[in-house]
Amino acid sequence: MNLTEKARLKAVLAKEKTDRPPVICSGGMMSAATTAVLSDFTNNFHNDPVIMAQVAERIRLNTGFENLGVPFCMTVEAEVFGSTVDLGDAGVEPCITEYGAGELAAITDRPLPDPLTAGRSPVILAAIRELSARNQDIPIIGNITGPISLTTSIIDPLRFFRLMRKAPAEVSATLDYVTNYLVTFAQAQIAAGADVIAIADPTATGEILGNVNFQRFVTPMLLRLVREIKNAGAGVIVHICGDATVLLDSLRELNGAVLSFDSIVNLPKAKVVLEDIPVMGNINTQMLHTGEPQRISSHVENLLTQGIDIIAPACGISLATPQINLRALTTVVKRFGR
């Protein structure tokens, strides 16, 4: 079986047999745009689509990951909703410096943004078109921020979590509203050429929300996103940070997506609970940052022998992560089964 990188990933998404697991780093929250890569470019890698596409291609070349993923941050959608963003540089990641709203009503009372024109959304779409035009056999992964993480990037998180108790109906309405934008943004990325959409919701952890709140506030939004993305013709990856073990029953409902987990989760045990849902992960990113290549290789080998469907970092990668460590990760996977 001699599969292209795109065919291999699509096969896993379709729950079909492959020669080996893909090894990817999706972009967005889970980006391998490290300082070692970014320092070779101007500081326009977050707002120039041509440079963004070039960075994505350099990441794949330097690390061996089997995909192209944009953007390289989780601030695009929050900026669209009025939050102020510092784009950083080759050594500092983009971050929110001022929230775009003080009340939930200030979010929902605005006209719904258009991803074709709002903020940096058109930059992401243009970068995807650039990548799609010249990479036929490599999967292109577009990224969106999950509803909880997006809303807590627009309004102060502590206020938001208090409102989950005091005004749950208003919270649900706000999450539904921002999900409307995420649906249209994901659809626009697919129309531009994205093969897969990765949804990262790092704030929607089991530790923060618990299963009851996750089921009430998060599951309906993720179900809608998964359904709309699949209807638009793309695959879906959903990443939840932290110890998602208490959320597995809720996550089982997302049967149309690959589920990506943090390093704290025992992936083989999660795989048993999730039955035939493909799982992805979960190489500890601290180990990728500071560990020895041999230790990384051994950890990857363990995941491979335990039948993990897609090998990937467990969470966001430090900008200071050495390229040799990322290459150690991908090399072991590509040799598996030979």
Automatic annotation (TrEMBL):
InterPro entries: Methanogen_methyltrans, UROD/MetE-like_sf, Uroporphyrinogen_deCOase. One of its GO terms (molecular function) is uroporphyrinogen decarboxylase activity. Its EC number is 4.1.1.37. It is an enzyme of class 4 (lyase). Residues 5-335 form the Uroporphyrinogen decarboxylase (URO-D) domain. It comes from Sporomusa silvacetica DSM 10669. It comes from the Bacteria. The keyword Lyase applies. This is Uroporphyrinogen decarboxylase. Keywords: Lyase.
